[in-house]
Design a protein that fits this description.
Layout: E1 2-6, E2 9-16, E3 23-27, H1 42-46, E4 50-55, H2 71-84, E5 90-95, H3 97-108, E6 113-119, H4 127-142, H5 145-156, H6 159-164, H7 166-177, H8 181-191, E7 207-212, H9 220-229, E8 233-238, H10 245-248, H11 250-268
């Protein structure tokens, strides 16, 4: 396991691929972690890029400090991680919560951002989305992993994926029981403060926006707002996929990401 001390905490990280290749950072969703959540992406991406997977504060094997988290804080942690690893700039990707971290990073550290990949993410929290996440927080405060599982899974996956993957979801119940509920509450409260709406036009990095056709949590309406307000943005809709596009349609997700990145490498040559 690799850990690095930044901004008073330890972050867990993994590097895959050739260190001489351009770096691609993968920012996790709310209850994802670096060690397991990108299993359908790592090998495909590491053929062409040095892939940096890491747990932000409050996630996985990173430290889970008490107190208030912010997207600005996550951006500073990622910048310090890159500096500590001697990486001057990188392609920055993220799904859901990781997409919000990616937006914060691109806004605060534009010179470190070669391009941006935003999957199933939002620029602000709508009233409906706020109620959904507040329900998740209620389940977390109950201390019952099964309640949190039942509150989140229908929003994270399409109905067909849930039907077709009972074994995977049964295994997820075990992983839910291992979560640090206090830390997830801190992360959830951090998400509820997200509001990049008026700053989106400041993002000048080429941006790839990905959304699942059946994402009812952070769906097409949010993706279209990102597309309309980021100058160099392209939008890709993955058919028949719910919120977790990198799991439900991994091949399509990987193809979109690699195709977008290849165009950025051509431009920089």
């Amino acid at each position: 396991m690799s850990r690095i001390h930044v901004n008073g905490i330890d972050l867990y990280y993994e590097l895959h691929g050739n260190s001489s290749s351009p770096t691609l950072v993968l920012n996790n969703g709310l209850i994802m972690n670096a060690a397991t959540s990108w299993v359908m992406q790592t090998a495909a991406f590491a053929r062409y890029y040095q892939v940096l997977q890491y747990d932000c504060r409050g996630q996985g094997l990173a430290d889970h400090p008490e107190g208030i988290y912010s997207m600005d804080m996550h951006a500073d942690d990622l910048a310090a991680l890159l500096d500590g690893l001697g990486i001057n700039h990188a392609h920055i990707a993220g799904i859901s919560y990781g997409g919000e971290i990616s937006q914060a990073f691109a806004l605060k550290y534009p010179r470190k951002t070669r391009s941006l990949i935003l999957a199933d993410t939002v620029r602000e929290v709508s009233p409906k989305l706020r109620i959904v996440v507040e329900c998740w927080i209620d389940a977390l405060r109950s201390g019952d992993p099964l309640s949190f599982f039942h509150a989140t899974v229908p929003w994270n996956f399409s109905a067909q994926f849930i039907k077709d993957n009972p074994v995977l979801l049964e295994d997820a119940k075990r992983r839910y029981a291992e979560l640090d509920f206090s830390a997830v509450i801190n992360l959830s409260n951090c998400f509820l403060e997200v509001d990049f709406t008026h700053r989106l036009p400041e993002i000048n990095a080429p941006t790839c926006i990905i959304v699942g056709e059946l994402d009812h949590l952070k769906g097409l309406n949010f993706a279209q707002i990102l597309k309309e307000n980021i100058e160099q943005a392209e939008l890709h809709i993955i058919s028949a996929a719910g919120h977790a596009t990198c799991w439900e349609r991994a091949k399509e997700f990987n193809s979109i990401v690699l195709g977008f990145l290849s165009k950025q490498e051509e431009v920089s040559m």
